[in-house]
Write a structure and sequence with these properties.
The protein has 276 residues and is an alpha+beta fold.
Length: 276
């Protein structure tokens, strides 16, 4: 569902608006380090020295990663049909990073086993200062995404997120469960509109206008040269042309029977025709 992409892109835009100068001001402590789906340093540069430099720049700095999880489509209220109300879990991970080394087992050109050291960024064990920074960052994220606060950077977000049903904040722990890490996951259960495609037979338009709402509105608001804008443009190119309609409906015949169902026009008690 493309509305999930719209929700993620609008959330990133709310927390780290495109076009903000490097010096800021930024809406949160994380500054520009707000990522969609994952922190991908290799996507920035494949040069090992550049990746190492990027890892060093993130040392002990807040990082935010935005993604979506489960998505439920339910009937409205007490209705049993149709399933049209969409509730998506928007997950926002906030963390502090420290440099680490991951050892990957591989084979060299001769087929002999070797270990390769790969740089990584990991969440350290939390302490008083780490917890305070994460609490402040969480407070900033909640403030920005709260419709009542009318944060300027969240205007686009609120065109996608109709309402927030609940928010959960979960601390993360080490694999053995004994150590709490400097990492929290916020889960916003958000009601969003479903994808609104053009009506059958309606021309989908060109470029970004081929996308359904709400993704279309988000795409049009993003800078064209941004990675998010380029992603939307690529998706728009994948939208197929509208299928042709059958011959248009010209009239409707009404065949009525008094206390019975008429089989045809000859056996009806009343016949009417409405031209369209």
């Amino acid at each position: 569902m493309l509305a999930r992409i719209a929700l993620r892109l609008a959330t990133v835009q709310a927390l780290a608006p495109a076009g903000t100068p490097e010096a800021g001001p930024w809406p949160t402590l994380a500054g520009a380090e707000v990522w969609e789906e994952r922190l991908d340093l290799i996507a920035q540069s494949e040069a090992p020295e550049d990746i190492a430099q990027a890892l060093a720049a993130l040392e002990n700095k807040p990082v935010v990663i935005v993604y979506t999880e489960d998505h439920h489509t339910l009937p409205y209220g007490q209705s049993k049909y149709p399933a049209e109300e969409n509730v998506v879990t928007l997950a926002i991970e906030i963390s502090l990073g420290v440099q680490g080394v991951v050892r990957v087992k591989a084979k060299n050109a001769d087929g002999a086993p070797v270990e390769i050291e790969v740089g990584s960024i990991e969440a350290p064990v939390t302490d008083r200062q780490h917890a305070a920074i994460l609490d402040m960052l969480e407070a900033q994220v909640r403030y920005i995404l709260d419709r009542r606060n009318a944060a300027p950077s969240a205007a686009l977000y609120h065109t996608v997120a109709a309402e927030t049903r609940s928010i959960h904040s979960d601390p993360q722990r080490a694999a053995d469960g004994t150590l709490r890490l400097a990492l929290r996951t916020l889960k916003f259960h958000v009601k969003v509109a479903g994808d609104r495609w053009p009506a059958p037979g309606e021309a989908p338009g060109a470029g970004l206008m081929r996308l359904p709402e709400p993704l279309r509105g988000v795409a049009l608001a993003l800078p064209e040269n941004s990675s998010a804008g380029q992603l939307c443009a690529a998706l728009a190119d994948m939208v197929p042309a509208a299928a042709p309609l059958d011959a248009p409906l010209e009239s409707v015949d009404f065949v009525l029977g008094l206390g019975r169902t008429p089989v045809d026009r000859a056996g009806a008690d009343a016949v009417a025709e409405a031209a369209l």
